[in-house]
Amino acid sequence: MDQISVLGAGAFGTALAISLARSGKTVTLWARSEDAARSMQSARENIGRLPGKPFPASLSATSDLTQACKAPILLLAVPMQQLADFAALNKSLIQYKSLVACCKGIDLKSDRGPLAVLEDLMPDARVAILSGPSFAVDIADGLPTALTLAARDKDVVDMLQSELTTDTIRLYSSLDPVGVEFGGALKNVIAIACGLAMGAGLGESARAALMTRGFSEMQRLAARVGADPATLSGLSGFGDLVLTCTSDKSRNFSHGFKLGTGATVDPNVTVEGVATAKAVMHLARTLDLDMPITTTITQILDGHISISEAVELLLSRPLKRE
Ligand SMILES: NC(=O)C1=CN([C@@H]2O[C@H](COP(=O)(O)OP(=O)(O)OC[C@H]3O[C@@H](n4cnc5c(N)ncnc54)[C@H](OP(=O)(O)O)[C@@H]3O)[C@@H](O)[C@H]2O)C=CC1
Ligand SMILES: O=C(CO)COP(=O)(O)O
């Protein structure tokens, strides 16, 4: 299968399309905006979302979804909170294809991860999730990256692993999509927490504490929704947590950092952790789970408490075993 389409022409979708095309696939990148698709076709780059990363010859951009959906493998790279509506609206075009969700987050309306959202809508579709530590610019630059590709079905994951591995993206397979989708979603909330801490000058020791205790929250929640906690120690979990919590290339980290310094944030930037933190709070309440870091971050994001009040709250919790 040499044809792949990427639906959603943001930074990540564009980077994946470039890497796949560079590795010999014929790739179609679909943008919802006709102007954006036309501009990409003529400039041979995505000036709006991933500037300076040239398109290989076998990559074409279009705003014609019917044409894009002719490929047997479709990568869905729209932001998490758009995924359910996008898939529902275009179900007839995508339901018999191999679908790979490439977004990271929990849907606010259903409290479900990307793979579960697709499965709920299309129970018979072949669905998988791609997640792990990878900045779009690194992928587009051809720097080496390792990601996890997960599906419930072994044949589906084996086929997609071989089709989507590129010269520079090494894919590990997993049969625990719930662990993979929750690992990718939850790390963004902890990255906002780390950004807040660094922006507010709380120091690197505080960041390490947030990463470690945040990881513990991630594992607890993932286990309760049916994931194997060991999956969270992999690329889509620990791996992505390390990347996102320690790099100012991360939009989630930078969002927290800006709030920590008191700067204003750009509402047009995709910061998946903000909505995901709210969805995690619904889940934590439903499952009666203690998630102190996520709770505190949600209260800060909602403007209910200040960062110094958050520090006081976290430090004054009853002492416990690690
Ligand atoms: N950037 C990165 O380094 C990485 C991102 N990801 C994940 O990939 C997902 C997408 O992020 P990213 O590409 O960075 O986001 P961007 O902010 O770069 O782009 C979002 C894209 O989604 C499009 N879009 C938004 N809503 C819809 C919709 N309803 N239908 C169709 N297209 C839509 C936007 O179109 P328009 O331009 O018309 O607004 C835009 O092209 C996120 O879940 C993110 O966590 C994962 C790994 C790395
Ligand atoms: O998921 C990512 C890296 O793996 C990208 O992180 P941001 O969305 O925070 O930029």
From TrEMBL:
Substrate binds at K104, R251, N252. Its main location: cytoplasm. InterPro entries: 6-PGluconate_DH-like_C_sf, 6PGD_dom2, G3P_DH_NAD-dep, G3P_DH_NAD-dep_C, G3P_DH_NAD-dep_N, NAD(P)-bd_dom_sf. Pathway: Membrane lipid metabolism; glycerophospholipid metabolism. The keyword Nucleotide-binding applies. Catalyzes the reduction of the glycolytic intermediate dihydroxyacetone phosphate (DHAP) to sn-glycerol 3-phosphate (G3P), the key precursor for phospholipid synthesis. Residues 3-155 form the Glycerol-3-phosphate dehydrogenase NAD-dependent N-terminal domain. Residues 176-312 form the Glycerol-3-phosphate dehydrogenase NAD-dependent C-terminal domain. It comes from the Bacteria. GO terms for molecular function: glycerol-3-phosphate dehydrogenase (NAD+) activity; glycerol-3-phosphate dehydrogenase (NADP+) activity; NAD binding. One of its GO terms (cellular component) is cytosol. NAD(+) binds at G8, A9, G10, A11, F12, G13, A136, R251. NADPH binds at F12, R32, K104, A136, R251, E272. Keywords: Cytoplasm, Lipid biosynthesis, Lipid metabolism, NAD, NADP, Nucleotide-binding, Oxidoreductase, Phospholipid biosynthesis, Phospholipid metabolism. The active site is at K187. This is Glycerol-3-phosphate dehydrogenase [NAD(P)+]. GO terms for biological process: carbohydrate metabolic process; glycerol-3-phosphate biosynthetic process; glycerol-3-phosphate catabolic process; glycerophospholipid metabolic process; phospholipid biosynthetic process. It is found in: Cytoplasm. Its EC number is 1.1.1.94.
